[in-house]
Design goal:
With 315 residues, the protein is α/β, with parallel strands linked by helices. The chain has one domain: Metallo-dependent phosphatases (Purple Acid Phosphatase, chain A, domain 2, 4-Layer Sandwich), CATH 3.60.21.10. Helices cover 39% and strands 19% of the residues. It is built from 8 helices and 13 strands. It has an 8-stranded mixed sheet, with helices on one face. A 5-stranded mixed sheet has the order 7-8-9-11-10, covered by helices on one side. Strand 2, helix 1 and strand 3 form a beta-alpha-beta unit. The termini are far apart. The N terminus is likely disordered.
Length: 315
């Protein structure tokens, strides 16, 4: 179950300090990374141990030309400062920062790098922590398709801007195109289910009680035949994380409600988890839907502009 968290400095449903914090898929270096909400979240949440569960920096995008504002530097610096002040920080690289896997077992700036790790809760339950791309057959066997899906995802995020410009001027709230596609594309839903089951099966094989992962940008808290499966979600759209309280309870939480300008929203509302269309099945179906929706969005914007001109209303 996803727990709502407060924004800014109001009374908190989240304890100011937790035993462990799990964050994945920040994708620093891209325009989609929600660095400001993440910084706000980290200001309100201290942890004994922080697990960075992959795709923290998007080196795929960095190679093509990064978007790296000061807020992205601030996220990195804040994590390094936490490590230097005594917080245990463990980085588990994902497929977008897989080059760091070559340094597994080493420490940089006080941050441990591991390929995966077993976390034991205060209740003595053991959880395998891994990014999860090991169980994505596309990333493993057809890298070019994964890159294609990555470009399709970027296109979907880019379309969010004009689409939500129209919605804002119509008095409507933020709407995620990628979330819509997730529920419309049958192959995407099948992929999520297959991925979750494969990761849970690996946890069972390793003799642990559960698994905490990322990769598919789909926050989740469910059980598979006795295995507790948790997915951190992402900090691109859903802004979700997993925390362990000092009672040993693992909770999936969402930070505020993202507004149209990408900042943390004012209300402490739970955010529906989103999926990024990185799977080739999604990418293939999504491109057709994206073209159709892009044309519809353009037509709506044109009609709205004409109406404003006739009525003499300024933007």
């Amino acid at each position: 179950m996803t727990s709502p968290l407060p924004g800014s400095a109001r009374g908190s449903a989240l304890a100011p300090r937790v035993r462990a914090l799990f964050i994945s898929d920040i994708h620093l270096g891209t325009r989609a990374a929600q660095a400001e909400p993440l910084l706000d979240f980290l200001r309100h949440c201290e942890a004994d141990t922080i697990y960075l569960v992959g795709d923290i920096v998007d080196f795929w995008k960095v190679r093509r030309g990064p978007h790296w504002p000061q807020t992205h530097n601030d996220v990195v610096q804040k994590l390094i400062r936490r490590a230097r002040k005594g917080t245990r920080v463990v980085l588990i690289p994902g497929n977008h920062d897989e080059g760091l896997r070559d340094y597994a077992g080493l420490r940089f700036g006080g941050i441990e790098i591991r390929t995966d790790i077993v976390h034991e809760t205060a209740k003595g339950r053991r959880y395998l922590v891994m990014h999860g791309d090991e169980f994505d057959i596309v990333v493993r066997t057809a890298r070019w398709l994964a890159y294609l899906g990555d470009h399709g995802y970027e296109f979907a995020l880019w379309l969010n801007q004009p689409l939500n410009w129209v919605r804002r001027h119509l008095g409507l709230g933020f709407w995620s195109l990628s979330a819509y596609l997730k529920y419309r594309v049958k192959g995407a839903v099948a992929f999520i289910g297959a991925f979750e089951e494969a990761v849970a099966t690996e946890a069972r094989r390793r003799g642990v009680n559960g698994v905490i992962c990322g990769h598919i940008h789909h926050a989740s808290d469910r059980a598979f035949a006795g295995i507790h499966y948790l997915n951190c979600g992402d900090w691109v759209e859903s802004c979700t994380a997993i925390v362990e309280t000092y009672d040993g309870e693992l909770r999936l939480v969402a930070w505020g409600n993202r507004s149209l300008n990408g900042r943390a929203g004012a209300a402490p509302e739970a955010v529906a988890p989103m999926l990024l269309p990185t799977h080739p099945i999604q990418a293939a179906h999504a491109h057709a839907a994206l073209r159709k929706m892009s044309l519809s969005c353009h037509r709506r914007a044109t009609r709205l502009g004409r109406a404003r001109t006739i009525l003499g209303v300024n933007s």
